[in-house]
Design brief:
Length: about 400
């Protein structure tokens, strides 16, 4: 009698490295989630979500002791805005998701309390949250931005000055609410900032999330938007300008977890100077329950000089065939010489033509902020970057 062999030859527990218990994560939704840093293994730099990050320079944030900095913010007054401090064991904490990496778990476990910003106005309000009083001491923060059902608000997070910060920003968008969250990083040259933005979007609600990263030595802002109810809409836009020796990283996750949800992701970046580095990773998951999904993501990078590096990795997982559409795109390259030639033919110098192309490239994202004063300031900051570059 012949016995059918059902196991791979040699694949025994004592020889295969115990792959049954250490198999790689197969889908984005299976990543470990925990508020306990002890649940995360030590970072080696080979992990899928850390392999492009200078982890050796982040040890104080990923595993060290942290001061609490949640209260180091200034919130502008507006109708329907309530600011309060809540304990980390409150039911109000964790509704948008738990940490998925060691840095976020370290912040979660050491911060003393979370600052909750509750938004209730049905008339469009703009709220500014400023943070400029941090130091180079390693610190943690936790902020909750909650949009009540049917509310309509723009929240602008302005970060400047010194920082050595790891933080979580929770965003809870109630049914039928419209919320725009703008995160602006204009840190000093040596600042380090690791941020996880977790969002849950309710039924027929709209979230527009915008990131603008200009300043800081190492900046890593990772938005995760969970479209958890029917008709939810999530849009994630970003603009960044990396200079010599600067590392700007954005890992975007869109989770379609309900029927008839929609998402759009568009990040644009410019890089100049030796060692300028940009990393963009876009993950879109369309789950089995997300029939009728409409999704698209793209990343565009413009390299202005030699010595720069841009990593652009779009990922798309689809678990159902019943969708309206899904796609992604990624490009990294130099100037389009035809554009430069066209502008020169109109009497514009080559240097000025190149500056105009960069401005136009990034302004598409910045204009989505919808605040003329802030848009003008960011355009001036980009202009300053260009004036200092070899293009000038």
């Amino acid at each position: 009698m012949t016995t059918l062999q059902t196991e791979q030859h040699g694949a025994k527990a004592h020889t295969d490295g115990d792959w049954a218990n250490r198999a790689p994560v197969q889908t984005r939704s299976e990543r470990l989630k925990s508020a306990d840093i002890a649940d995360f293994p030590a970072i080696t730099g080979r992990e899928v979500n850390w392999k492009y990050t200078p982890v050796a320079e982040l040890k104080s944030l990923t595993g060290g002791e942290l001061a609490s900095a949640s209260s180091a913010i200034e919130v502008s007054e507006a109708e329907g805005v309530e600011v309060s401090s809540v304990a980390m064991d409150s039911d109000l904490v964790g509704r948008a998701g738990l940490p998925e990496d060691q840095a976020a778990a370290n912040a979660w476990g050491q911060v003393e309390s979370a600052q909750r910003i509750l938004l209730t106005s049905h008339e469009r309000q703009t709220v500014t949250v400023k943070r400029s009083a941090l130091t180079t001491e390693a610190a943690a923060a936790h902020t909750i931005i909650e949009a009540a059902p049917q509310s309509d608000t723009v929240v602008i997070l302005e970060n400047s000055g010194d920082a050595n910060l790891t933080e979580t920003v929770e965003i809870v968008v109630g049914d039928g609410a419209t919320l725009k969250v703008v995160s602006i990083q204009e840190w000093n040259d040596e600042a380090v900032h690791l941020a996880t933005h977790n969002a849950t979007v309710g039924r027929d609600a709209n979230l527009q999330h915008i990131v603008v990263s200009l300043g800081g030595k190492i900046v890593r802002v990772n938005p995760s938007i969970h479209l958890d109810a029917q008709g939810a809409n999530g849009e994630a836009y970003g603009a960044y300008f990396a200079d010599a020796g600067q590392h700007l990283e954005h890992q975007v996750y869109i989770d379609h977890n309900a029927p008839h949800t929609r998402s759009r992701v568009a990040y644009k970046g410019a890089l100049q100077g030796e060692g300028a580095r940009a990393v963009w990773i876009g993950d879109v998951l369309i789950r089995r329950v997300a029939a009728g999904t409409d999704s698209y993501e793209e990343n565009r990078n413009l390299t202005l000089t030699e010595g720069t590096r841009a990593d652009s990795i779009p990922n798309l997982e689809i678990e159902t065939g019943d969708i309206e559409g899904a796609g992604h795109a990624s490009t990294t390259g130099r100037f389009d010489e035809e554009h430069i030639f066209y502008l020169q033919s109109r009497g514009i110098s080559e240097d000025e033509a190149r500056k105009l192309v960069v401005r136009g490239f990034l302004i598409d994202v910045i204009q989505r902020i919808g605040n003329e004063q802030i848009e003008a300031r960011l355009q001036a900051a980009i202009e300053s970057e260009l004036e200092q570059s070899v293009l000038a």
